[in-house]
Amino acid sequence: MTGLEIGIIAVVLMLVLIYLGMHISIALMLVSLISISMLRNPELATRMVAAAANDSLSSYLYGVVPLFVLMGLLVVISGVGRDTFDVFQWLLRKIRGGLGIATVGANGIFASITGISVASAAVFTKVAVPEMRRHGYTPKFAVGVVAGSSVLGMLIPPSLLMIVYGVLAEQSVGRMFIAGIIPGIILATAFCAVILLLSWLRPGFMMQDKTQTGAVEDVAVEETPLTLFSKLAPILLLMTLVLGGLYSGFFTPTEAGGVGAFGALLLALGKRRLTPGKFYQVLGETGYVAVSILFLILAASLYSRMLALTGLPMSIAQWVTALDLSIYHFLAMYLLIIILMGCIIDSVSIMLIVLPIVLPIAQHFGMDLIWFGVITVVAVEIGLITPPFGISVYTVKAALNDKSVPVKEIFKGVVPFFLTMVVVLIILSAFPALSTYLAYRY
């Protein structure tokens, strides 16, 4: 059996194992070990596991993963998500659809210090959904805007997906962070524009009849500039500390993660939200998330080496070249595959499976890998809100704990945001400078 045949069988077997319910990292490791044993010998396979572990996880860079996870979880505990939403709610109280826009704005700010979409979805389901429903917004819109805007956490830096892509593509994580700023702002702005359009063109999708629902009228809450500043200052200070130090070059990504985690700890302590029990819980969850990601990266490193031994990536690159496809034909096929995979597989797994095969092709076409990473992250994010997997949708459902709002209603609510993300993805694909301008300027 040739190396190419072994490579094809390995990819198919891995997808079958994942479909049958095996954890992605175990499937990657198992298939890689079997394939390398068939290509060479079992002894080499075990040596490659050790080499992959040493080479992929010994880097100082990987310290950024648990630090940013810890920072995000501490921010969730501190309750600044609610404070941020309160500020946006007051500022936009007189705009039709203002609470929806407030949710997007607060999610964008919250995303800039968490980097985890699931955290944003869980927090704003508790904070924003009850408030929107109380003011007469339909349940499907209320949960839809939370699930839809939660994906900003994976694009606006710091982002765990950006870290994973940077490691797999051997690109600067700091540069990947900076590259996500303009696309993140564009996506958040597009979400706000869609909410305004819905409020005028499809008011029935957004609002219920207040005479039937008993919704309250918007009451102007007395807020002073000092009160607003006191609510927004902590999160702005943390953003400035982490992102300012990172973009100015004063901090490396890992140092920024450490400073951010310490700042989030002080914030949680200052608000008296962090008990010893909660702190222990946060540390345990940080370890669980970080180890899961790092083990996935280890498995992906072994998988990449196995594919290189089979010659499959190079063969696929030569086949694509022989088809005489243009760069945009290839890009369209690639993004479509990513979006379809998002219907059944989680975000990190998609990147670990696809990128080792696709990156050589992208380099063959002369694509900028920073830009390629940004559009990959956006395409992967779309999978967070597409059925049947849609992890952000299920996070909202679990956090809401309301039987009157079935999962089907949440998926209906995210449709406008799904379509918006597709449009933004097309724009980012057509204009690479939107992703690369800041990345190469600083």
List keywords for this structure.
442 residues; mainly alpha; 23 helices; 78% helix; cell membrane; transport
Would you kindly provide a written description of the structure presented here, covering whatever features stand out?
There is one protein chain. The chain has about 450 residues and is mainly α. It has one domain. Helices cover about 80% and strands about 0% of the residues. The protein contains 23 helices and no strands. It has helices at about 5-20, 25-40, 40-55, 65-80, 80-90, 100-115, 115-135, 140-150, 160-170, 175-180, 180-200, 205, 210-215, 225-245, 255-270, 275-310, 310-320, 325-340, 345-365, 370-380, 390-400, 405-430, 435-440.
The SSE string, one letter per element, is: HHHHHHHHHHHHHHHHHHHHHHH
**Which overall shape is indicated by the principal axes computed on the Cα atoms?**
globular
Instruction: State the helical fraction.
Output: over 70%
Q: Give the number of DSSP strands.
A: 0
Question: Which ranges are low-confidence, i.e. pLDDT below 50, for 5 or more consecutive residues?
Answer: 211-220
Give the DSSP E fraction (strand runs of 2 or more residues).
Answer: under 5%
Largest sheet: none
Rg over CA atoms:
22 Å
Total domain count: 1
- What class do helices, strands and sheet pairing give? mainly alpha
Number of helices: 23
Query: Ends: how far apart?
Result: 50 Å
Q: Can you give the mean pLDDT? A: 80
- The oligomerization state is single chain
